[in-house]
Design a protein that fits this description.
Helix content is 41%, strand content 25%. The protein has 10 helices and 12 strands. Strands 1, 2, 3, 4, 5, 6, 7 and 12 form an 8-stranded mixed beta sheet that branches. The N and C termini lie close together (12 Å). Bound molecules: adenosine-5'-diphosphate and magnesium ion (MG).
């Protein structure tokens, strides 16, 4: 029988940072970098997965998937997804899965969610059952959180499923309501990877989560439910640094809504200002930026054709996201790489992307 190919995209978050675990709003876009899974039936009772990027393969007896245990490597993303699907009544078939991705692994563009969702879609499809997109995203997120053991929100898997070419995805992390937002045609998405990941990252992440929880306890409500108008009152109840942390979250939610409105009226100036405000808020109030990211943002802001730029992801390293006019992309790449290299002694990886469609089966 013919092979079938399923693919799911990586993503970048345009705005709405550290809002996900505060029941807030995020605005990611799916990127035209994909994880592709080529699937074919086997006649034995094995699920076999080959990671072509890593030159590694792994297999499981299909009957053992409900009781599979993590092995501590890439194959956990596959087994975890399969196990979550079994829990939802999807029987995993005996298959070969050849996995190949052009989402860079571990660069902050969510190769992990692309892998889970592409594998998940293949497994569901061969089971002969159907599963809604939101359920597929949740199964994949649970695979990563519970089986792989990495705490992550639902954003990555959601946009890997529901992203659409020419659009970003507004996602309410409290209700999981989502809608597509048209992106202005005059911009490309350019990610610059600082190539650093400071030690502080995971301890600071946990600390910020605790600080937000403490602010919520004092205020008696979710930061999501504090409007800008109510902020002056809320603020006076909070000691530092909780006040600064909460301020970031409250204003960042509003910035997401303002960004969506600016996209809809194609106001590039407003997009740029909102990204800059988001970055400064993350740097000064939330204190999750670092020297390299600040350097990339300051340098980019001074380059011709850059509409907006900010750090993206948790911070302390990883990528910046830049909205760049198509005619300026190549000179932007050259200039930002040269400046970064002069300052830090190594070239950053630069990814020039368009927004893309979410997971689907493609012609083999
Ligand atoms: P990110 O999602 O930002 O790329 P993560 O650390 O969350 O970074 O996920 C990267 C991990 O996901 C890799 O180390 C690997 O275990 C797994 N992974 C992602 N894509 C692939 C792939 N194509 N083949 C095998 N493993 C992959
Ligand atoms: Mg990931």
């Amino acid at each position: 029988m013919a092979d079938r190919i399923f693919r799911a995209p990586g993503r970048v978050n345009l705005i709405g940072e550290h809002t996900d675990y505060n029941e807030g709003l995020v605005l990611p876009a799916a990127l035209d970098l994909f994880c592709e899974v080529r699937a074919s039936r086997r006649t034995d009772a094995l699920l076999n997965a080959s990671a072509l990027n890593l030159n590694s393969s792994a297999f499981w007896k299909t009957l053992s998937i409900p009781s599979a245990r993590p092995r501590g490597d890439w194959s956990d993303y596959v087994a975890g997804t399969a196990q979550q699907l079994e829990r939802r009544g999807i029987k995993v078939s005996a298959l070969n899965l050849a996995i190949r991705s052009d989402v860079p692994l571990g660069a902050g563009l969510s190769s992990s969610a692309a892998l889970e969702v592409a594998v998940g879609m293949a497994l569901v499809s061969y089971s002969g059952r159907t599963l809604g997109g939101a359920e597929l995203a949740k199964a994949c997120q649970q695979a990563e959180a519970e089986f792989v053991g990495l705490q992550c929100g639902i954003m990555d898997q959601f946009v890997a499923v529901f992203g659409r070419r020419g659009h970003a995805l507004l996602l309410d992390c409290r209700t999981l309501e989502h809608r597509l937002v048209p992106l202005p045609a005059e911009v490309e998405l350019v990610m610059v990877n600082s190539g650093v990941r400071h030690e502080l990252a995971s301890t600071a992440y946990n600390e910020r989560r605790r600080e937000c929880e403490a602010a919520v306890r004092i205020l008696g409500r979710s930061l999501r439910d504090v409007s800008i108008a109510e902020w002056p009152d809320a603020e006076s109840a909070l000691p530092e640094p909780l006040r600064r942390r909460a301020r970031h979250v409250v204003y960042e939610n509003q910035r997401v809504l303002d960004f969506v409105a600016a996209c809809e009226r194609r106001d590039l100036t407003a997009l740029g200002r909102l990204m800059r405000d988001s970055h400064h808020s993350l740097a000064r109030d939330y204190e999750v930026s670092c020297f390299e990211l600040d350097f990339l943002v300051e340098t980019a802001a001074a380059i011709d054709g850059v509409v907006g730029c900010r750090l993206t992801g948790g911070g302390f390293g990883g990528c910046t996201v830049n909205l760049v006019r198509p005619g300026s992309v190549e000179s932007f790449r050259r200039k930002i790489s040269a400046a970064y290299c002069r300052r830090f002694g190594h070239e950053p990886a630069v990814y020039v992307c368009s927004s893309a469609d979410g997971a689907r089966e493609i012609a083999a």
